[in-house]
UniProtKB/TrEMBL annotation:
Residues 41-289 form the ABC transporter domain. Keywords: ATP-binding, Membrane, Nucleotide-binding, Transmembrane, Transmembrane helix, Transport. Belongs to the ABC transporter superfamily. ABCG family. Eye pigment precursor importer (TC 3.A.1.204) subfamily. This is ABC transporter domain-containing protein. The lineage of its organism: Eukaryota, Fungi, Dikarya, Ascomycota, Pezizomycotina. PROSITE patterns: ABC_TRANSPORTER_1, ABC_TRANSPORTER_2.
Amino acid sequence: MDPSSIEAPPMESKTCVTKEQDLECGLTTNALFVNDTVHTLSWENLSVHVEDRKSKTPKAILSSTFGHVEPGKVLALMGPSGCGKTTMLNALAHRLVSTKMKLTGTIHVNGQSTTASKLSNVARYVEQEDALVGSLTVKETVDFGARLALSQSISKTERNQRVHDALQSFGILEQADSVIGTPLRKGISGGQKKRVSVASQLVTSPKILFLDEPTSGLDSAASREVMSYITSLAKELNLVVVISIHQPSTTTFELLDQIMLLSAGKTCFFGPRGDLESYFDTIGYPIPLHTNPAEFLLDLVNVDFAKDRSAAKEHLEKIHNTWATSSKSQNVNREVLSLSQNNTGTLQVENTSRPNMATVTWTLLHRAFIKSYRDMIAYQIRIAMYTALAIMMGTVWLRLPYEQTSIQTWINAIFFSGAFMSFMAVAYIPAYVEDLQMFRKERANGLYGPFPFMLANFLIGMPYLFLITFLFSVIAYWLANFRPSAGGFWMFTLYLFLDLLAAEGLVILVTSIMPIFVVALAVTAFANGLWMCVGGFLVPPGTLNVFWKYVFHYIDYQAWVTEGLIINQFKTTIYDCALGSNGSYNCMYPSDLMSEGKIRGTVVVDAYRYSSNDTHGKLIGIMVGIIVAYRVFGFGVLVLKRY
């Protein structure tokens, strides 16, 4: 199904005419997205500990927090950098990013204790960074979000209607066919991207919405408009909304319903925004007139830049203790305990049946296919790059003669083909980093795991990698005058195809471990340089240092490709010896054809310490094993690693 074919009955919509107006558009209420099942979100004695590396003892980064938020309200988690607000948000969403973090306490929805799997049915999390596929359109982005999350019992027609309604409700219907935007193609504005991020989560009708730093990177005016939109969203759709926010402007601060002020992992205040001034007045810290309350409070509880650190810590501890013993804090604790003891209604989950593995894999394949032919960085630039490389190689090694003086030149050409085919696979890193960002977001929201992601990535890449290899071989093989036979050509193509599959597997593994472009590029380039050194061309395997030989040579896919290509070229070919001044033949490689002034190609294979008895089946089997190993290790990294 092509997302561009989504149709829906015409409905009155409130859309944006220009990008500059995108944050001024109102929200069109749609009953489909209104929350009528989640009545409260509360947490009791919530703490997060992490093991200290030096002392090996648990260190509290969030301590004994209580609170609750009702539908239609926006709770803002505030505090200085390192105060624990992001940890608090992730804890409430059951998204702690490290296995070393231990969560204690209880999170309740409608008074019922909840788990990550239960919460994922009613809640969605919007990342601080807009993790979107830049080559997809707005409509496709929301549609794929629906396809990955909605129950299989929902029909295609109903899903299409949901997508249409979501686009309409968020004021982005007129931008439905606009691409999100890539480095090479301009797309929608930053405010519209934020709306698309929320819409792609809201299309599944969540009742609770978590947003991490929704105003990050925006100026004060844009921040106010974004927050105005989020508060309108909460009220119109009766959603429970929890956000983390650093230092809002005065006008943005006034839009918030509830405030949870944190410092050093402990609560300094929790309650309605309107109660802040009176509370801090009471404890001896009045908020000055004509001062941004958020700025004043952050300065009040921030000890990082204090000249007298010990005095500042005593001051902060006093604020913590004052809150913990205050009547307001006791009231909050009693309300939370009351909510946990008296269920406010059975939690009705509309869609508990997620798409099965096959459906998820097919959806990811469809999305990857759209990206692959639209995003020039993914494959188009690589196709052009390898084609240019083939033309260069074919014209440099142009029509090599079958003479002994060309034997080393042939081997150089073989080495160049395999080594640079794999080395240039680093061009795939940017596209895979973007894929990883989407995977991280969607996995955290409970949509799918590493297996369908890795499988879809492998399957979508195979035809493109084969096309790259075929185009390279068609040009370079015949221009250079490699063994002129169909069998030789297809074996040459097969080895280079396996070489590229292995190289891309290496890219996947390294980038999965270190999903930072510059780092992944450096490590992958280093690994390819290592493979070139120990592959058997620069230093023959027979004279290679035993450490490099037994530790790296046998797992070097370039080594097996080089051996296979040398056997493919030399096993059945014969070369002319040079004729000496005395009329006798001067053969560089002695063979049984020396008397005829010929060199049998098998002796060249033997000279490089390869065995001319090795079969292509054996070498291809080893290559397939290396390819599978890279993918399995890459899968294992994604299973074990929590971003």
